[in-house]
Amino acid sequence: MDIQEWRSRIDKVDEQLLRLLSVRAQLAIEIGRSKREEGVELHDPVREQEVVRRVLDANPGVLDAEAISRLFREIVNESRRAAEQATKALESSAAQRTKP
Asked: What's the sign of the alpha-carbon dihedral 24, 27, 29, 31?
């Protein structure tokens, strides 16, 4: 395989990663909505540590533990941020509907 073929394969993997990250963020948004309805705090550091620990345990070893930990902490942070933004948008929308 030449460099262009390798790059093409990387581009396809990047597209798959982007789709999966979008799915993950959408799931986090749904969890955020559920937590809002239940009056539960969005940020759950224990769960976030569990996520990182689980992926570290599943790591096939191509990337070292530090890299995996950094990547997944950032994924978790961005998923939480998406959930927080969606929750704020819902709250703002609800507040607008209740104004006279």
From this structure: negative
**Within the chain, how many helices (H) and strands (E) appear?**
3, 0
What are 59's two structure tokens? 């790591």
Return the DSSP state at 23: H
Q: Where are the domains of the chain?
A: 3-98
Fold of 3-98: Chorismate Mutase Domain, subunit A (1.20.59)
Give pTM, 2 decimals: 0.85
**Encoded tokens for 9:** 């394969």
pLDDT in tens, 13-38: 999 999 999 999 999 999 999 999 99
Give yes or no for a contact between 36 and 87, defined as CB atoms under 8 angstroms apart.
yes
